[in-house]
Write a structure and sequence with these properties.
The complex is a heterodimer.
Chain A (H helix, E strand, L loop, with lengths): L16 E12 L2 E13 L4 E5 L6 H9 L6 E10 L2 E2 L5 H7 L4 E4 L3 H4 L6 H12 L4 H14 L5 H5 L8 H14 L4 E5 L7 H18 L2 E6 L2 H7 L2 E6 L2 E7 H6 L4 H8 L52 E2 L7 E2 L28 E14 L12 E14 L3 E5 L6 H9 L6 E6 L2 E2 L10 H6 E4 L13 H11 L6 H14 L16 H12 L6 E5 L7 H18 L2 E6 L2 H7 L2 E6 L2 E7 H4 L6 H9 L7 E3 L34 H4 L4 E5 L2 E4 L4 H5 L5 E3 L1 H7 L36 H25 L2 H6 L13 H4 L19
Parallel strand pairs in A: 3-8, 3-9, 6-7, 7-8, 15-20, 15-21, 18-19, 19-20
Antiparallel strand pairs in A: 1-2, 1-4, 4-5, 9-10, 10-12, 11-12, 13-14, 13-16, 16-17, 21-22, 22-25, 23-26, 24-25
Chain B lengths: L3 E2 L2 H11 L1 H16 L5 H5 L4 H18 L1 H4 L18 E2 L6 E2 L10 H37 L1 H16 L2 H9 L1 H6 L1 H9 L1 H15 L3 H23 L12 H29 L3 H8 L4 H9 L4 H24 L11 H10 L9 H27 L1
Antiparallel strand pairs in B: 1-2, 2-3
Classes of the chains: A alpha/beta, B mainly alpha.
Chain lengths: 812, 385
């Protein structure tokens, strides 16, 4: 048995919850499957503990174990959980029940599933005090109203009278939190409470949760896969891997000076500010999470660790070892004092040349898509249906080998746009030009094979993207057959193998069924399928958002590698601005069917912003302790597309509205205003006000210095970050020939600006020269662009070996 | 003339002994299945489950009984031995020394042999009718669920119409001589038996459109075999004289398919509406697949789990329906040994003698129970995946 870990943040006070060497197993027909092993932590009063890990690491099992709410096959097989000093293992069912929901409350991921749809919110809330404190109905109502107010819901009386389905997702989650708070619990367990919500709504919930600790003195255990969220909400963090806690300590210690290779791997694989797809790419953790019954001897992370030493790391079970100089910082790594923490994994590529965008491949001009909602389909047709305006006046263009990100929250119309592009829907009006042909009103069935294969899609959900009934190989072969690639069955089979090589999967996978693949592998097959017909435009609809962090990096890098080789244009649909900043060359921000802002990535991430972009930027959690964010929390929810507000679509939540004279925002749709070259914003604000906008994300230079960051660290100079004047002087630093001795970041910056210039030049050409002349240049015809790549890909090594390497260390 | 009897114990032993080919076949098939269960997919997984094993055993028992009827049964189902009228179980036929294990019925026929032969009729009509109902339901349910809108409205309305009509009345109408004379059942049969051919033609056509050598072979085979069976069943005009069906059985067949295909239709339609929202369907659409390819090759295989379970339950239901029809004296010939007719015959004299009614009843019950257990096990296993 390992030593008992007792971190104590506050001397002398008794922790609310103490977990000692907790082990939980599930007993199935195949025998015992250990889900959590030797987990220890302590939560002090008023403290928030974050538990971070990828799916399957046992973080949710820990929280259920604390509640003693394991299903009938789960069992606590070792260790103790002490709540306020009392061993929960010795409590009777009766005692446990009085603690659950009263002293320990839990908030789950899916708010709708936590509320009873048949009961009014008020009744459900009142149940808590009536049950636990045995108070009268009037008293219960009073308390319920109070708490609904405390979670900052508008119009509490009305809320209390509503049914759950009448509330939005964010409001529902607030109600769930209110219900948890009603009994004034000493400990609050939050299991991914914001994962199902939109980013701006999430920001509101996070702020609320943060305030709770202060307001009620509640201790919290916050389970999440998102390091940024943990940073914003917690005081201490425990990183879990494969059923074990691998590192625990104060947020600052772990984030700035992590002492476990897995934690470092996690940080290296998320796009923190400073990561750059060309100069400083992400590093994915190689390999896969071991299955519970296939865990290696010794360190569980050993097989995936670059610092693995045979004979030491796999000799014996590794205990939690205290890290010197940090209070309560422990790591389950036997070699953390010997490791060179700045070392990069072997074979990681240093950097790659930025890609020069070519001529426009896809042009979208004033595209509109309206849906008619008919009340009754059977007998209807006569009554007037309501119109949903899913897309309003969408205009932008994408160039060869460029990545254009389309950003927005649910219901903003980005998926509709993708559907129109792919021909699953036809446009109501406007033009979509792919190459030389207009495709806006050609449905997929009317498109010729060439058009179909030149615009393809990578889907969001890896578990849905492959048909579970057909083998992986046959699905790719079918795609090739459909695109007319190869003459015979054998030809297509060969091409299929080449595609598997391209996405770095072993050829043996061709025979496998999709259920035998992990999420990341499935997504790779999805990528292979999209590139099967040498697509010119690939629409990637949140291709990595459903994957685990370390896998996300690998798939993102893969996508970009293939894109680079094939000179493909990528439309990257996402709500996650940190990924967007990393991957995109240009960004289009959408809200309620409108494009509210578009420009290069640098322009979008630097002031002046559109007010909505500003809020979005502020809402993304960033896992970097040196980042200082301005807090902008939007009021209310996204209006329904069925019933959009008049005037500016964002006016209901805009914090800048008061600076616009008159009621223009409420009555008139703002014009698309050019802020700078190619940077457009749909806003009434005038230049004066725009000039007052401050950068949302900036670096605390002092903090960075304190950390002892290397000179060329990305601080303060990343695209769109403070440290540079807001009105960026184009070309000032990027002037002729960035010297070799100039730091890498300045170089990338320079490239960025150079790119901007090029784009501008192209555009002027575009509008100057006649269309026909432009299209004659011939960027459109190279359908064969990718066909030549097979030769270079044949020798691609197997999975994960050539993941890219950043120029220098991310935070340590 | 007095009839001699053997004891109850001997009856049991004798019956078990008569079933010897069934035991042998079951031992071989089940043994092989358990040995190779890892390679057998969903069917192999049934053996991981006690309920499933019970279901499989019961179903196999009746299946092999039907196959080996002529060996198992000691007498012809229609042969009468006058002295054995209403004989009690275990009665020995005076001349030959053979035994009426379950006694004789009111027409002095061997109840045991009739039960064994009855399984043949049940096991041919029930699964076949279910298969046809599945084809009809699937072929109509796929477009209804996939396209939605007007097609869905019209087809659903028709399905509801059939479902809302009292089943027994429907059967009465379909087998009434007056209706039969109009040729309606034959026309309906002509319509229903067309569906499997359409189904397979569409299946192969959508898949191998771009590979003519494969396509023509498969289409040719489908049309040849399908057409041959079609002509034989519907018009009783098989040039080779192999495929033919008794007009009464055809009537029943049509009635059963007619009554159960709306149920299949609704299930398929619901499944399609769910599955068509998946990303892999969108992926198929974005690579330009035709709607029928998507329905038949992308959606239908993923709807198989619930459909298999439903088919099992439906075979059981059809078996009971056949019993009911037999009980009302509809359809099959009065001397037919099928279980329903046997129960009807025996029930008339239930007060006098019980024993002729019991074997067909227990047979019917156990077979339906076996199918239900099988369906349960399949459902459980398919949920695990």
């Amino acid at each position: 048995m390992n030593e008992v870990v007792k971190p104590s943040a506050v001397q002398g006070s008794q922790p609310i919850l103490e977990i000692e060497n907790l082990s939980i197993s599930f007993f199935t027909k195949r025998g015992e499957i250990p889900a959590v092993m030797d987990f220890s932590c302590a939560v002090q009063p008023g403290e928030a503990m974050g538990i971070v890990g990828e799916s399957g690491c046992g973080k949710s099992t820990v929280s259920l174990g604390i509640m003693r709410d394991l299903s009938n096959i789960g069992k606590i097989v070792g260790g103790k959980i002490r709540f306020k000093g009392k061993d929960m293992g010795e409590m009777s069912q009766e005692e446990l029940r009085s603690i659950r929901g009263n002293e320990i409350a839990m908030i789950y991921q899916e708010p709708m599933a936590s509320l009873n749809p048949a009961m009014k919110v008020g009744q459900q809330l009142m149940e808590v005090p009536i049950l636990h404190d045995k108070v009268s109905k009037e008293e219960a109502y009073k308390r319920a109203l109070e708490t609904v107010r405390a979670v900052r819901l508008p119009d509490p009386e009305r809320m209390i009278r509503s049914y759950p389905h009448q509330l939005s997702g964010g409001q529902q989650q607030r109600i769930v939190i209110a219900m948890a708070l009603l009994s004034k619990p000493a400990l609050l367990l939050l299991d991914e409470p914001t994962t199902a919500l939109d980013v701006t709504v999430e920001a509101g919930i996070v702020e609320l949760v943060k305030g709770l600790g202060k307001q009620f003195g509640t201790s919290m255990i916050f389970v999440s896969h998102n390091l940024g969220l943990i940073l914003e909400t917690c005081d201490r963090i425990t990183v879990m891997y494969s059923g074990e806690a691998v590192e625990t300590g104060r947020i600052k210690d772990v984030f700035d000076r992590m002492r476990h290779p897995y934690t470092q791997g996690l940080f290296r694989s998320i796009p923190l500010p400073g990561a750059d797809k060309n100069a400083r790419p992400l590093i994915a953790i190689p390999g896969q999470l071991p299955l519970p019954h296939q865990r290696p001897k010794g360190c569980n992370f050993g097989p995936r660790c670059q610092h693995f030493v045979k004979g030491r790391c796999d000799a014996d079970e590794i205990p939690m070892i205290p890290v010197e100089g940090h209070e309560g910082h422990f790591s389950r790594c036997i070699r953390f004092n010997e490791i060179d923490w700045a070392a990069l994994p072997e074979g990681a590529r240093k950097s790659s040349e930025p890609v020069k965008p070519g001529a426009p491949v896809l042009k979208i001009d004033d595209l509109k898509k309206y849906y008619r909602v008919v009340a009754n389909e059977v007998f209807g047709g006569s009554g007037e249906g309501r119109v949903v305006k899913a897309n309003e006046a969408i205009s932008f263009e994408a160039r060869e080998s460029e990545t254009v990100a389309i950003v927005g929250e649910s219901g903003c119309g980005k998926s509709t746009l993708a559907k129109v592009l792919l021909g699953l829907e036809t446009a109501s009006s406007g033009k979509v030009t792919l190459g030389n042909s207009q495709i806006q009103s050609t449905g997929i069935e009317l498109r010729d094979v060439k058009t179909v294969s030149s615009i393809q899609m990578v889907f969001q959900n890896p578990f849905d993207t492959l048909n579970p009934s057909h083998s992986v190989g046959s699905q790719i072969i079918r795609t090739l057959e459909k695109f007319g690639v190869g003459k015979s069955v054998a030809d297509r089979r060969n091409r299929m193998f080449e595609l598997l090589d391209l996405v770095k999967l072993p050829r043996a996978f061709a025979e496998r069924m999709p259920r035998q693949l992990s999420g990341g592998q499935k997504q790779r097959i999805g990528v292979a399928r999209a590139f099967a017909g040498s697509a010119k435009v690939v629409v990637a609809d949140e291709p990595v958002s459903a994957l685990d962090v370390s896998v996300q990096a690998a798939v993102t890098e893969l996508l970009m590698d293939i894109q680079r080789k094939n000179k493909t244009t990528m439309l990257f649909i996402s709500h996650d601005l940190s990924v967007v900043r990393y991957i995109a060359d240009r960004v289009v921000v959408m809200y309620l069917g409108h494009i509210v802002e578009q420009g290069t990535t640098d322009q979008i991430f630097a002031p002046p912003y559109h007010p909505y972009t500003e809020a979005l930027l502020s809402a993304i959690p960033i896992a970097d302790t040196s980042v200082v964010k301005k807090h902008i929390v939007l009021e209310g929810d996204i209006p329904s597309a069925m019933n959009p507000p008049p005037g500016c679509p964002f006016q209901t939540r805009c914090r800048w509205k008061k600076f616009v004279p008159g009621n223009k925002c409420e009555t008139q749709l703002p014009p698309l205003k050019a802020l700078s070259d190619g940077h457009m914003s749909l806003c009434w604000l005038d230049d004066e006000q725009l000039a007052t906008m401050e950068p949302v994300i900036s670096f605390d230079a002092e903090h960075a210095a304190h950390e002892g960051m290397p000179e060329d660290a990305p601080h303060g100079s990343g695209p769109g970050f403070a440290g540079e004047p807001p009105q960026r002087p184009h070309g000032k630093r990027a002037s002729a020939g960035a010297g070799e001795d100039e730091d890498s970041f300045a170089q990338s910056e320079a490239r960025g600006h150079a790119r901007a210039h090029e784009q501008r030049d192209d555009r002027s050409e575009d509008f100057g020269a006649s269309r026909t002349a432009n299209s004659g240049v011939g960027p459109i015809s190279p359908l064969q662009v990718g066909d030549g790549r097979q030769a270079d890909d044949a020798d691609v090594p197997s999975a994960f070996e050539d993941d890219e390497r950043p120029e220098d260390e991310p935070k340590r | 003339m007095t009839v001699e009897y053997i004891g109850a114990f001997q009856v049991i032993l004798g019956v078990i002994a008569r079933f010897w080919p069934v035991w042998l076949a079951m031992a071989i098939v089940v043994g092989a299945s358990i040995y190779y269960k890892k390679k057998l997919g969903l069917y192999g997984q049934i053996y991981d489950n006690n309920v499933g094993i019970a279901g499989v055993l019961i179903c196999f028992f009746w299946l092999f009984t039907a196959i080996f009827s002529s060996t198992v049964a000691p007498f012809d189902p229609l042969a009468q031995v006058p002295v054995m009228k209403d004989a009690l179980p275990g009665a020995i036929v005076p001349d030959t020394g053979a035994v009426y294990y379950f006694g004789g019925d009111k027409l002095a026929r061997d109840v045991f042999s009739r039960m064994v032969y009855g399984s043949q009729i049940v096991l041919i009509i029930a699964p076949a009718a279910t298969a046809f109902a599945l084809m009809v339901g699937a072929t109509l349910g796929l477009p209804a669920g996939y396209y939605g809108g007007r097609i869905d409205s019209v087809l659903s309305f028709l399905a509801n119409l059939v479902l809302a009509f009292p089943v027994i009345l429907l059967f009465y109408l379909l087998v009434t001589p007056g209706i039969v004379e109009t040729g309606l059942p034959v026309w309906l049969a002509g319509l229903f038996f067309l569906f499997p051919i359409i189904f397979f033609v569409a299946l192969f056509y959508t898949r191998f459109k771009n590979r003519p050598e494969r396509l023509y072979l498969l289409l040719g085979l489908t049309i040849l075999i399908g057409g041959w069976i079609y002509v034989g069943l519907v018009f009783d005009a098989d040039p080779l004289g192999i495929v033919s069906i008794d007009p009464n059985q055809l009537n029943i067949f049509v009635a059963v398919v007619f009554a159960s295909s709306p149920g299949v239709f609704r299930i398929v339609r619901g499944l399609v509406m769910d599955i068509k929202t998946r990303d892999y369907i969108a992926a198929a659409q974005t690579r330009g697949e035709s709607p029928w390819y998507i329905m038949l090759w992308e959606i239908l295989p993923n709807a198989r789990g619930p459909l298999i379970v439903d088919a099992c339950l439906r075979i059981g239901y059809t078996t009971i329906l056949l019993g009911t029809l037999g009980y009302f004296g509809l359809g099959l010939a009065p001397e037919s040994p099928d279980w329903g007719t046997a129960i009807k015959d025996a029930s008339r004299l239930l007060r006098a003698t019980i024993h002729p009614a019991l074997p067909p009843t227990i047979a019917l019950m156990s077979f339906v129970l076996g199918l239900n257990l099988l369906a349960d096990a399949l459902r459980e296993q398919s949920l695990k995946d």
